[in-house]
Amino acid sequence: MTRTGTSLVSLLGPDPTTYVPHVLHAETRAYPETNCYTDVIVELLHACGYEPLAAMGFTVRVDFEGDQWTFFKPPPEDLEQLFGLDVHEMQPYRPLPDQAAEQLEQGRTLLVELDSFYLPDTAATTYRREHVKSSAAIESIDRDRRLLRYFHNRSLYELEGDDYIGVFRLDGRLPADVLPPYTELVRFDARPPVAEAGLREAARELLSRHLGRRPAANPFERFGEALVRTLPALVDADAPEYHAYAFATVRMAGAAFEVCASHVDWLFGDEGGRAVDALLSIPADCKVLSLKLARRRVFDPEPVLARLAAAWERAQLALDSVAG
After folding, report:
1. Ordered DSSP codes for 65-101
2. Is residue 23 within 8 Å of 162, Cβ to Cβ?
3. What 8-state DSSP symbol labels residue 248?
4. Residue 3 scores a pLDDT above 60
5. Of 74, 89, 85, 70, whose CA–CA distance to 24 is shortest?
6. DSSP secondary structure letters along 173-235
7. What is the DSSP string of 132-168?
8. Residue 9: strand, helix, or coil
9. For residue 275, which of 38, 204, 253, 268 sits 20 to 30 Å off, Cα-Cα?
10. Rounded to whole angstroms, what are the CA distances from 277 to 26, 105, 140, 285, 311?
11. Helices 76-83 + 196-211 axis angle, to 10
12. Adjacent-strand bridge partners of 15
């Protein structure tokens, strides 16, 4: 916990204007944002001085769930084993700013589902336009100045004033039957973190475990069958329906396997080159499929779907070879 000369209480004390995000959020990536939860964990670990790539082996288990791809989130047990983080649900029975400040005082933080309507970093999408829940990690809070610094999406941001009032529901205009936001407590003292010298070996053990639980059948083949059935309705859908579908399917899959490629590259280097190449072809073709779907015109998705399925198969064979 860091306390300044003001009433600001901070976990680590970084400045949003100078904070440098992790490479997983670089502009050069096909998907600079993955999903709100994983993005937050990446930046929280990065700000603590840990390597988030070590915890991304679980992405080999990403699957097509029938109407969407897995909303991939780092398993709490992996975070505890690698970095000593204990992430568990917390009961928000008091005003959230008070609970956040108290936990920051004790060297902990909160993961909270906040309303993007009040998050200025979403200015290009939902800020002051749509009420959409999104996970954030509280880095600093100043209850007197009504200021909040938070990890969200790709970096560290700050909000204040009316946004602070709105995001914490302090204006008293919400009906009594509105549920409190889902909140998790993050403790950093569950166990000592793995030393840097042993981090790759620990990550490799986790990857082997996750490979044993990956999909038994090619998920892109099942996704292709579902897409062919869904395509006529998508062509007739409006833009919001398309964007919701794309986020839950091609974007989620593309982001997951791009992260997986980065994990394999970090873990194995040149030895994992064949797996990395196969994995990186997946986000590239997910982008192609997204663009075709965005036109909302009838097209033949089979060539792209066949490439995606083949890339997944090549990636699995290469992973078995390098991680076996």
Report:
1. -SSSB------HHHHHHHH--EEEEE---S-HHHHHH
2. no
3. I
4. no
5. 74
6. -S-TTPPPPPEEEEES-SSPPPPHHHHHHHHHHHHHHHHTTS-SS-HHHHHHHHHHHHHHHHH
7. -EEEEEEEEEETTTTEEEEEETTEEEEEETHHHHHHT
8. strand
9. 38
10. 19, 45, 40, 13, 9
11. 160
12. none
pTM equals 0.94
Which amino acid type is present at position 315?
A: A
Question: What is the overall mean pLDDT for the chain?
Answer: 95
Cβ(45)–Cβ(55) below 8 Å: yes
List C-alpha distances in Å: 250 to 10, 93, 207, 292.
37, 38, 24, 11
Tokens encoding 81: 């084993």
Is residue 106 helix, strand or coil?
coil
Mean pLDDT within 248-268: 98
Instruction: For residue 63, give both structure tokens.
Output: 């699957």
CB distance 223 to 63 below 8 Å: no
Report CA-CA distances (Å) from 5 to 106, 164, 269. Answer: 18, 21, 45
| Residue 128, token pair as written in the block | 């002051």
Contact between 270 and 259 (Cβ < 8 Å): no
Looking at the chain, the whole-number percentage of residues with pLDDT higher than 90 is 88
Total residues belonging to the chain: 324
Q: Which CATH architecture has domain 2-187?
A: Alpha-Beta Complex (3.90)
User: d(Cα 58, Cα 54) in Å, to the nearest integer?
Assistant: 10
Tens digit of each residue's pLDDT (9 = 90 or more) over 200-247: 999 999 999 999 999 999 999 999 999 999 999 998 888 889 889 999
Radius of gyration of the chain (CA): 21
296 — pLDDT class (breaks 50, 70, 90): confident
Pairwise CA distance, residues 87 & 147, whole Å: 25
Distance separating alpha carbons of residues 187 and 204, to the nearest angstrom: 24
